[in-house]
Write a structure and sequence with these properties.
This protein is an all-alpha fold. The chain has two domains: 17-107, no CATH class; 108-587, Cytochrome C Oxidase, Chain A (Up-down Bundle). The protein has 21 helices and five strands. It has helices spanning 20-38, 44-49, 53-72, 76-83, 89-95, 112-140, 151-170, 174-186, 194-210, 238-265, 278-310, 323-357, 364-377, 396-405, 407-421, 430-453, 455-461, 465-495, 501-527, 542-557, 559-572; strands spanning 497-498, 574-575, 604-605, 620-621, 632-633. It has a three-stranded antiparallel beta sheet with strand order 3-4-5, with no helix packed on it. The protein has a two-stranded antiparallel ribbon with strand order 1-2. It starts with 19 loop residues before the first helix and ends with a strand.
């Protein structure tokens, strides 16, 4: 389909069409009507059906989600299809955002590049929000006694921070970079299911928007795990938690299915499995984990929702349910979730290293085996979270062993990284600095995890700040540094401009010092006996907590140069050339900005992406119909 954007007819103003503004207006009005008009004491729902507050909240969120998608126009095309109404080529092009303009980023747009940028902006916004909540938590912990908030509000802050960060982090790599670059990596013109891809983003965004509404209904004090039966006893704000995870899990499942289908079915000729870059491999493995794990979380939260609203008793012991059932099902999802975050970051940093060392990835096949091995073993370790529960003590040796076995495939990732760096002509732009920081912090995360995977030490450290530090080294030290490496590396391709290197390096050093100072200190305070999720602590721990908070403030300040960099580059940044790094990877062979269909012709892949040696064979021929004298890419 040849696209002539200039020939497209003039469309209505974006305000006169389905878009995010009308979607949020309809969703909010629908929720308020159900909860505050029909559901209040004496309201129609109470008088007619005798509904309790939890039932009203459950219905209110369901109506809000439905009306949100009505306002977004998600149902317009399916309704036309059901009625047999024709869809013109002009309408289809408009759905893909072929006319350009900022308005397409606020609509249900089918272009995978628009969806990738929508994810990127949403991730940055909610990362900033979650970071602000973290600053409030650390400020409260400057003193041993409650100062800024009451304990219940403090626990709500902890829950909001952790849930926001985890949902954001579950899509921090796959969302922006998977959706934007997977078709470019494999030589495809689009994603396999564009409507599913667009739907996944708006579900993801809606989940993150709904979670803060818990503040208006008593909050949620369960922490990110939402353990039942505690969750069954919470305020009405817990329904926001349930709805948020159900939507976020659905979004991740749909996105994962779409990426898997695209990689399996839409590869360019010659794009064999051994010619994938490691970003493609890692996003594929992470997507398979999400496809298998996220539905488990959706199911368990719907079960909690039914327990709260319809007294089904799945997890309520007095009704024949089991809290152990919730814990096992939750952590069956919860531990693969850690690698849904980390594995895509591994592939991205391994792809950045060759570009700035001018060397092929060392032991490429071993790195692929490592990524797949980590993904496989992540399913056999969940019960190390339950060592202190007293459940099935006979299985503890197996879960200790399986947890520590993950060190072996992880070691292959480190082997590939060190081998790539050895003897390379290394340069240190911001992207490379963030990529390098991934490895020591992930190593600290793995090292600290050994102590909570062994029963004797877990007895001492379980529930302490040591566990929090360990988790943040994995979640933030690995995933977030990989995210920023990807932002600095691919920003020229996504936005057509290069981020400022001076601001980028200021951002890196402030963030690296602030991050490591914060969580090394929190590991120390955990060893000293401080428990997580408490707003008070013994006075002898105050000095260490003040130190951790000062480093946390530095970590928060480090985001300022990054945000300034985005603003500066958007307005006055240096225009990027098509391949500023002379990379061999296929995404750099397209024009900047990337055209609607990515490639004028499907490329013919003839080599791998890492052959930086002199006189290496080019990676692709961009016009396979003219293979004898066509355009050669990758030299």
């Amino acid at each position: 389909m040849a696209v002539e954007v200039a020939s497209l007819p003039q469309r209505r103003s974006w305000l006169a069409r389905p878009n995010a503004l009308w979607a949020f207006v309809l969703g909010i009005l629908g929720f308020c009507f159900i909860v505050w008009v029909l559901g209040q004491d004496g309201g129609l729902l109470n008088m007619t059906f005798g509904l309790e507050i939890n039932q009203v909240m459950f219905l209110g969120y369901a109506v809000a989600v439905f009306l949100f998608f009505v306002g977004l126009g998600v149902f317009n095309r399916p309704v036309k299809w059901l009625l047999g109404l024709p869809i013109s080529e002009e309408e289809l092009l408009d759905e893909y955002g072929a006319g350009g303009g900022v308005g397409r980023y606020f609509r249900y747009t089918l272009d995978h590049k628009v969806v990738g940028i929508q994810y990127l902006v949403a991730v940055i916004i909610f990362f900033t929000f979650g970071g602000f909540l973290a600053m409030l938590i650390r400020t409260e912990l400057l003193t041993p006694n409650v100062r800024l908030t009451d304990p219940e509000t403090y626990l709500t802050l902890v829950t909001e921070h952790s849930v926001t960060m985890l949902i954001m982090a579950s899509s921090i790599i796959i969302g922006p970079f998977g959706n934007y670059f997977i078709p470019l990596f494999i030589g495809a013109k689009r994603m396999a299911f564009p409507r599913v891809e667009a739907l996944s983003f708006w579900l993801f965004l809606l989940a993150l928007v709904i979670m803060p509404t818990a503040f208006f209904f008593g909050g949620s004090q369960t922490g990110w795990t939402g353990y039942a039966p505690l969750a069954d006893q919470m305020h009405a704000g817990q329904d926001a938690y349930v709805t948020t995870w159900a939507l976020a899990g659905s979004a991740a499942t749909l996105a994962a299915l779409n990426i898997i289908a695209t990689i399996f079915l839409m590869r360019a000729p010659g794009m064999t499995w051994s010619r994938f870059n490691l970003s493609t491999w890692s996003i594929l493995v992470g997507s398979i984990l999400a496809w298998l794990a996220m539905p488990i979380m959706v199911a368990v939260q719907l079960m909690v929702g039914f327990d709260r609203s319809f007294l089904t008793g799945n997890f309520i012991p007095v009704q024949g349910g089991s809290a152990f059932f919730y814990e096992n099902v939750f952590w069956t999802f919860g531990h693969p979730e850690v690698y849904i975050l980390a594995i895509p970051g591994m592939g991205i940093v391994l792809d950045i290293l060759p570009v700035f060392t001018r060397r092929p990835v060392y032991a490429y096949r071993a790195a692929v085996v490592g990524l797949c091995g980590i993904g496989l073993l992540s399913w056999f370790v969940w019960q190390h979270h339950l060592f202190m529960s007293g459940l099935t003590p006979g299985l503890r040796p197996f879960f200790m062993f399986s947890t520590e076995m993950i060190s072996f495939p992880t070691g292959l990732i480190f082997l590939a990284a060190l081998g790539t760096l050895f003897g390379g002509r290394i340069t240190f732009p911001s992207a490379m600095l963030f990529a390098l920081a991934f490895f020591p912090d992930f190593l600290l995360g793995g090292f600290s995890g050994i102590f909570v995977s062994d029963v004797p030490t877990d007895v001492q450290l379980h529930g302490s700040y040591w566990v929090q530090a360990h988790f943040h080294f994995i979640l933030m030290g690995a995933t977030l540094f990989a995210f920023f490496a990807a932002v600095y590396y691919w920003f020229p391709k996504m936005m057509g401009k290069r981020l400022n290197e001076t601001l980028g390096k200021i951002h890196f050093w402030l963030m690296w010092i602030g991050f490591n100072g914060t969580f090394i200190t929190l590991a120390i305070v955990g060893i000293m006996g401080m428990s997580r999720r408490y707003a008070t602590y013994f006075p002898y721990l105050q000095g260490v907590n003040v130190t951790a908070t000062m480093f946390a403030y530095l970590l928060g300040i480090s985001m300022v140069p990054f945000l300034l960099n985005l603003i500066y580059t958007w307005g006055w940044g240096e225009k990027a050339v098509e391949n500023p790094y002379h990379s061999r990877s296929l995404e750099w062979m397209t024009p900047t900005p990337v055209p609607l269909e990515n490639f004028a012709e499907i490329p013919l892949i003839v080599a791998g992406p890492y052959e930086y040696q002199p006189n290496a064979r080019p990676e692709a021929i961009l016009e396979p119909s003219q293979a004898a004298g066509g355009t050669v890419a990758g030299t």
